[in-house]
């Protein structure tokens, strides 16, 4: 079977969307996209049209792989933001061809570290990535929970709101997190730093709020929540209240690709937040 590759910049929009939706048909979570949602994601998460590609069998788009590249900690890093193969082409070596092609791109671009995430239950994909030199470095979860605060919280904790770009310049900011949790991927995001009464840093949060048509916060997506103090109810309640900014209104919270080893995530799980998805983070050190 002859498979040819085209950069997204060389493809028709309808072929790109068909490759994506067919590639993730029957996937563990539903990620069907329209042209608007696909290109919105490409822009927001810093993915590259020129370094991402569609696989064709003749004129038929049968698979897709999307990529992004950034420099972190002085190293050029790549992220595989999605690899999908149409159902009738699975198990026929197309995934292997996709990985061979993407590693050629990484070598050409001088990539030092390549990363991706895979659904924990997707053992077939994980085996494939391991064959190409990727190793599991962390377990990640997506959590969902709701909170409603009847009154404004009375606390000695001080809150300072800053831009995500400013947060990234702080010495305590964690740069080595999954791609979607890095500040560069959080367009329209916000961040807050929390201090005690003696101005000691307690924690920070990188998040994005989603608003209703009535001007109320409906949902808060948490990308980073890092504590530098002993975890306790007061600080966690203060964070959730502060990032929602709502009194007397139930708000949904979601964490994205948070490490299972993070004490704040463990606290949320122990206090009513439900795990919706678990992934493994995988990394390949390029030679």
From TrEMBL:
InterPro entries: Acyl_CoA_acyltransferase, GNAT_dom, YpeA/RimI_acetyltransf. The keyword Acyltransferase applies. Pfam families: Acetyltransf_1. One of its GO terms (molecular function) is acyltransferase activity, transferring groups other than amino-acyl groups. It comes from the Bacteria. This is GNAT family N-acetyltransferase. The lineage of its organism: Bacteria, Bacillati, Bacillota, Bacilli, Bacillales. SUPFAM superfamilies: Acyl-CoA N-acyltransferases (Nat). The keyword Acyltransferase applies. It comes from Neobacillus thermocopriae. Residues 3-154 form the N-acetyltransferase domain. Keywords: Acyltransferase, Transferase.
């Amino acid at each position: 079977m002859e498979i040819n590759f085209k950069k997204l910049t060389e493809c028709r929009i309808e072929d790109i969307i068909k490759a994506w939706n067919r590639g993730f048909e029957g996937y563990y979570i539903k990620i069907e996209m329209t042209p608007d949602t696909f290109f919105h994601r490409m822009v927001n998460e810093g993915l590259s049209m020129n370094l991402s590609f569609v696989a064709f069998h003749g004129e038929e788009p049968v698979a897709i792989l999307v990529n992004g590249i950034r420099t972190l900690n002085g190293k050029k890093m790549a992220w595989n933001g999605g690899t999908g193969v149409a159902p009738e082409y699975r198990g026929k070596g197309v995934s292997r061809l996709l990985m061979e092609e993407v590693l050629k791109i990484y070598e050409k671009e001088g990539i030092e570290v390549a990363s991706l995430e895979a659904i924990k239950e997707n053992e077939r994909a994980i085996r494939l990535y391991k064959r190409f030199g990727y190793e599991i470095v962390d377990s990640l979860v997506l959590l969902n929970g709701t909170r409603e605060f009847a009154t404004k919280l009375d606390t000695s904790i001080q809150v300072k709101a800053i831009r995500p770009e400013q947060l990234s310049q702080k010495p305590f900011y964690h740069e080595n997190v999954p791609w979607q949790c890095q500040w560069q991927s959080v367009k329209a995001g916000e961040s807050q730093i929390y201090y005690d009464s003696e101005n000691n840093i307690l924690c920070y949060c990188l998040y994005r709020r989603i608003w209703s048509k009535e001007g109320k916060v409906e949902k808060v997506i948490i990308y980073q929540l890092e504590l530098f103090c002993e975890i306790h109810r007061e600080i966690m309640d203060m964070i959730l209240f502060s990032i929602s900014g709502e009194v007397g209104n139930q708000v949904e919270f979601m964490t994205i690709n948070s490490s299972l080893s993070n004490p704040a995530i463990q606290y949320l799980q122990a206090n009513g937040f439900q795990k919706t998805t678990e992934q493994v983070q995988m990394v390949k050190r390029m030679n």
